Amino acid sequence: MSGSFTGRPVLDPRLAPPFPTAALPVLRNPQLRKNVAHATDVIQSKRARLVAEKTDWQQLRTAAAAIRSHALNHLGEYLEEFEARCNAAGGTVHWASDAAEARSIILELLRQEQASEVIKIKTMTSAEIQLNPALEAAGIHAHETDLAELILQLGEDEPSHIVVPALHVNRSQVREIFARRMGLEGLPDDPPALAAAARNYLRQKFLTIPTAISGANFLIAETGSVAIVESEGNGRMCLTLPRTLITLTGIEKVLPRFQDLEVMLQLLARSATGERMSPYTSLWTGVTPGDGPERFHVVLLDNGRSSILARPTERQTLRCIRCAACLNTCPVYRLTGGHAYGSVYPGPIGAILTPQLMHMKYAQSLPFASSLCGACYEACPVKIDIPKVLLELRSQVVNQERVQAARFGDPMFIGMKAAHRIFSGARRFRAAQWLGRFALRLFTRRDGWIHSLPGLGAKWTQTRDLRGLPSQSFRQWWAARGKEDR
Amino acid sequence: MRTPIDSRRLILDRIRTATQNQSQGALAYAELPRSYIRRGRLGAQDRLKLMIERLREYDAEVVECAPDELQAAIGAQLALSGRRVFVAPAGLPADWLAAGFDWKIDRDLAITEIEQAEGVVTTAFCGVADTGTIVLHHAESEGRRVLTLLPDWHLCILYASQVVETLPEYFDRCQLPPPLATYISGPSATADIEMTRIKGVHGPRFLNVVLVRDED
């Protein structure tokens, strides 16, 4: 991305820098912050208006949370039911235990199709398994057809939001990318002209490329159907025109019955884009002769999800329907945007999902990228208690660090150990207070403030002053006051 | 390399191990709380008014007519559109195919023929007033999915008796889950560039609805 970034953002959690480091360039980039603030403000205000008009919003949230929890509690049964119905309707269900297996299944299917190009609907799951680079390496060009994904693909950039992946890019940047990559020199920068350019660029591809890859919003166990919610119609193109359709989806996306959509669809668009419904919702079941693809494959992806399922507090993470309401409302995301999270899943949901998908081996800084204010929980249409999961993950990260720190004699670890000893006995505590007051007096200036401390203490005084300790502790003052009264 | 059978068993085993100890509060499907609004409270006139209002908010054009005025209303809409070449699903009533226009009836039309059409006329399964949604189940007169996708102009004939107030009421009208369905809420749109809503990216840019007052 020319002008907005120092290099392409890294969204592989195994390679990305820790959140505080990754956030710095964004915080120093006023244009980027303006773009993110504008987009999140617009969605927030639209969402607030449409949620307010829904008098049964809380009842819908309660129902949605219960449906999603129930589906996860019985995930095995519902997946087998989905598989049986989908296969019976002419689809083929594949199971991928991790990202590498999902990539190889899809590559093998494309080989059978002798595909050299595919058209794609926006799918975060394909970004999660890094499908596009694998396709390129196999000589298959993937055309992203969602407008935002197209902007990112042509601009060699990465998504920064789950629903509006290019929200960090403004119209003049889009114009520059399209003009350069589509060879349209005189392209104006008004959004309708830019959208029209995308329409023309993609139209022939829709009509001629016979293989498509999609994600899924919901799988219906009862019928073996798949549902996709979208705005532009690029999804409908990919779902109806090609000869072969491959749908990649996480195993957690299953709903028990068709009727459960009556809850999910009332929540999803309002939460995601601040609309009553997205322009297009498509539902299909296997293969229908004379209407749509002749071959249909579903790849069910585990990739760490079953291990999240095994943990009682964290299981609720899998209820997520990827509406991104938690991103738009998060005071941290609203300042940093998505790239700082070093994952295709940014924001509060990313902060809990990403480290878990990485089996807590990477992205350990993410559970700390939150003020625990709880705005995400309040916005979540399926009531995921994100702060609670954040705290659980923080304790896991600290426990990991404790083991490592003990081995290397880390000063923070020794300090915490010492504090533990000191705070667990009254005499030790009093002695430490006395020592502390004595030691800090050496650093206290005449104005009563400590302006700089050595060692670990410098971490505090680098950014703010510390008031010097008073000459008396509260306990001393209390004891003295008692004597006077008598 | 695992064989496909192994991966299926591996994943299902992991899931079963993860879910074997159900928590105390786990609810059976029939017990799930569903205290949201199922039935609307509006009378027939207000329900239709809401449907029209919501459709217009999406920039859809809406006209109303009595059942015996339908043929004329369709003709007027076609003429107003300034278009000439239309596709129609095979199940569309023959007397709706107004004279003076080029009609291509979809009996296995090639994609290129549908692409070249300037508009399409269909019926619908249902309309949902609360969200301004038109529901297609792709029956004979609703057309296969691509028919309402490629032409830039979609004229949908919706009967007042098909309009429900809430989304759950639509689900109640489904005797069986449809194998194919498309829910259309306004013309194709995007807000991907600076959250500015732009009408018409890949789907039809124009959605016109004739609402037939068959309940009066």
Please describe what this structure looks like.
The complex is a heterodimer of chains A (486) and B (216). Chain A has 486 residues and is an alpha/beta fold. Among the domains of chain A are: 42-307, Rossmann fold (3-Layer(aba) Sandwich); 412-485, no CATH class. Chain A is 50% helix and 11% strand. Chain A contains 22 helices and 12 strands. In chain A, the strands form 3 sheets. In chain A, strands 1-10-7-4-2-3 form a 6-stranded parallel β-sheet, with helices on both faces. In chain A, strand 5 (218-220) and strand 6 (225-230) form a beta hairpin. Chain A is elongated and about 95 Å long. Chain A starts with 18 loop residues before the first helix and ends with a helix. In chain A, 50% of the residues are buried. The model of chain A is unreliable at 1-5 (pLDDT under 50). In chain B, strands 1-12-7-4-2-3 form a 6-stranded parallel β-sheet, with helices on both faces. In chain B, strands 8-5-6-9 form a 4-stranded mixed β-sheet. Chain B has helices at residues 4-19, 44-57, 70-81, 111-116, 167-173, and strands spanning 61-65, 85-89, 102-106, 119-123, 126-128, 133-136, 153-159, 163-164, 181-184, 189-190, 198-199, 206-212. With 216 residues, chain B is of the alpha/beta class. Chain B is built from 5 helices and 12 strands. Chain B has one domain: Rossmann fold (3-Layer(aba) Sandwich). Helix content of chain B is 25%, strand content 24%. Classes of the chains: A alpha/beta (486), B alpha/beta (216). Chains A and B meet through helix 2, helix 3, helix 4, strand 1 and helix 8 of A and helix 1, helix 4, helix 5, strand 9 and strand 10 of B.
